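Q: 2,3-diketo-L-gulonate reductase, please. Structure only.
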Amino acid sequence: MGFPDRKAALSADLFVKSSLDGVPSHGLNRFPVFVDYIRKGLVIPEAEPSLISQFSAFEQWNGNAGPGNCNAYGAMDRAIDLSRKFGIGCVTLKNTNHWMRAGNYGWQAVDHGCLGLCFTNTKPNMPAWGGVEPKLGNNPLVIGIPRSSGPVVLDMAMSQFAYGKMAIYARNGKEMPYDAGLTPEGQLSRNPGQIIADELALPMGLWKGAGLSLLIDMLTVVLSGGNSTSEIGQLGEETGLSQVFISLDPLVMGLGEDWDQHLDRIIEDLLGSRTPSDSGNVRYPGQNTLQTREENMRLGVPIEIDIWKKIQQLADEKDK
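A: Structure for 2,3-diketo-L-gulonate reductase:
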C-alpha cells in the first residue's frame, strides 16, 4: 500500500505486538480500519515527520499525516535519545494519526531503561460531566516505569472502557460488565453498540475522568501547537491528532541505584493486599503482559476468525 520497506516492517510489528501482548482491540482488530484510512488518503504511507522547533530537550514535530504508529514510535525514540543527553526528553507531534496501542510506547521506553510518559488527544467521543453530547476525547495516557523484576506500564483511556474493547463486546453480542456509557437521554448504559454509535462513553471516575481528559487535551495543544479535540471533530474523521512523548533516564538524572528497591517494596506491599476469598489476587499494571507474550509466542497469537478473514480478504485484494 505504498509503505517503504522499513516503515511497513515497523508498522506491522507494532500491530502484531499489540495482539501478542493481549491487546487485540488496538492490534490486529484495528488493522482493517487502518487500511481504510490509507485508502481514504488520511494516512500517507510515505510521509515522514519534520522538525518544527527545538529548545534544549524539547522538540516539536509535524507528523505530516504519516502512519500514526510509526510516527509515535519515532517520537518516543527521539525522546529517549534526548533523555540520554539531558536526563529528560520531550517530543511533541501535531498533524499525526491514531497511534493504535498506546502501551507500545510505554514498553518502548522501559525496554531502554527509561521512564516513559505519553498522551494523545482524540476526536470527541465522550461527554463532559453533566452533558449528553460528545465534547471530550477519551485521550489515552501511558506511564511506564522500568524495574528489574518486571516493568510497571499503565495504559488507559479516560473512558471507563476503550472503544476497541467495547467493539469486541458488541461483535460478540454481549453487554459490558459495568456501566460503560450514556444514552442521549443521560441514562447509564451497558449496551456497547449503542454507546459506540452515540459516542457517549462514560468518563472513568465520572467527573474526574472528564476533567483529566480536558487537561490532557489542553496540554497536547499547548505543547504541540496542534489540533484540539473539538478541532479534530470538525475534520470529520479521527486524523490530525496531537501527541506528547516524554522520557526520563534515571541514571543520567542521578536518581541513585536504590530506586529499583523502592519500587520492589511498593509492589510487594500492593501484592500483599487482602482480597475476598473468591476474587483472586490484586495485580499491578502490566504485570500479566510478559506472561501473555510468552504464552502467545509459544501457542500462537490468538485472533478473532472474522478479523482474520478480513485481513486475508485485504491480502487477496492487493494480490489482484
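A: Brief note, in case it's useful. The longest helix spans residues 68-86.
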